[in-house]
Recover the amino acids of this structure.
C-alpha cells in the first residue's frame, strides 16, 4: 500500500484525522476497541502515530466501510491474522541453529577452561 501522506516520523491525531478522513473521536474509539491499535504517547501525553499505525488505521477503515466487516468480525479477523503471522522457521533450520549455538558454547567453555587452567570433566 503506497503512502499518501507527508514523509514524517510521527503524526499528531489531528493530522491522522485529516489523512484518514476520520474524526479524532473515531480514532480514539478504535483504540479502545482494537488492542493492536496503540499509538505512542508523547511526553505531553499526546497521541503520536507512526506510518505503520496510520496504515493499520486505513486498513481498518477500508475493512469496516468498504468490505462491510463489523467491529466484532474485524477483531476476530485480526486475532487470526496475528496468529498466522508468527514467524515460522523450518524444523531443519532450528536444528542447525541449535547445533551452531552448541558449537559456540563449547568453544566458549573450552576457552574459559584454558584461562583458568581447569581440565574438562
Amino acid at each position: 500500500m503506497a503512502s499518501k501522506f507527508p514523509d514524517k516520523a510521527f503524526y499528531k491525531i489531528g493530522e491522522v484525522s485529516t489523512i484518514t478522513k476520520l474524526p479524532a473521536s473515531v480514532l480514539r474509539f478504535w483504540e479502545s476497541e482494537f488492542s493492536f491499535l496503540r499509538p505512542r504517547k508523547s511526553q505531553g501525553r499526546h497521541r503520536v502515530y507512526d506510518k505503520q499505525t496510520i496504515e493499520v488505521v486505513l486498513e481498518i477503515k477500508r475493512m469496516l466501510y468498504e468490505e462491510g466487516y463489523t467491529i466484532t468480525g474485524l477483531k476476530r479477523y485480526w486475532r487470526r491474522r496475528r496468529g498466522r503471522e508468527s514467524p515460522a522457521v523450518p524444523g531443519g533450520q532450528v536444528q542447525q541453529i541449535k547445533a551452531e549455538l552448541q558449537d559456540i558454547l563449547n568453544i566458549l567453555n573450552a576457552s574459559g577452561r584454558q584461562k583458568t587452567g581447569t581440565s574438562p570433566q
